[in-house]
Structure formats: C-alpha cells, structure tokens
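For the sake of transparency, this paper describes our internal protein records without simplification. The record that follows is passed on verbatim for readers who wish to inspect the format:
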Amino acid sequence: MVRRGELTDKAWARIEPLLPMADGRGRPWRDHRQVIDGILWRLRAGTPWRDIPERYGPWQTGYERFKRWDDDGTWARLLEEMQIKDGSLGQVEFTVSIDSTIARAHQHAAGARKRGTTAGRSIRSNRKTGRRSDGPAAG
C-alpha cells in the first residue's frame, strides 16, 4: 500500500533508471525508494530533517542523500528528464503566476514623529506638566 504523497510504482519505474548506482565501495546504500519517500515527506511537511518518520530510515541518510544528489546534479537531471518526456507527450501544463503581494502601512504610520533625536536635539516631555523641552538644559 502506497501512503499519500509517496512514489507510486509507475512513478518509481520512471525514475529508478535515472538514479546513481552504488559503486561497490563501502556499505551498501539504503533503498533509494525509501529514502526518496522520506525526502519527499520532509519537503511536503516543511519540517526539520530530524522529524522524518522512522519508516523512511535514519534522518541523516535522507539528508546526506539529498545533499549529495543536489551537489552532483541528480535532482536537476530527474526534473529535466521528467519535464522533457512529459512535455513531449503533452502532459505538462506550465502555469506562470506572478505574485504582487504588498505590505501596506496604516494611514497613521505615514509622517509620524519619531522619538529620539530631531536635528541633533532630543525631544523629551515632562510627565508632570506634559510640556516638551528641547533638551536637558531647558526646563
């Protein structure tokens, strides 16, 4: 049973031949599919690497594999291959979205007087009288 967000058998069959093979040196690699499912889970959930569920293997393995494949261009090759094949079949729809989000300040924020120094003088008010003084000597 494939869990939500994990690779289907059809998707796995398409990307498996594109993944690097173990070179025979050192320890054998953990199953690519299990690690990729863990990486996809982490990217989808937006959590720290340490929060990857144990069913995907140690979080260090997921992080190291993600970093290694990013450095050697494996992820870029996978994306390019999928876009080219799906694009040639007419299965990819490219949508461009432009975000024009802005942050407006409240109308009372414009032109407000700032506390502190004004032209080299500090503005202070006398709490008892409510009057302003132009500096420490005025008073």
User: Anything to note?
Assistant: The mean pLDDT is 78. The first strand starts at residue 117 and ends at 118.
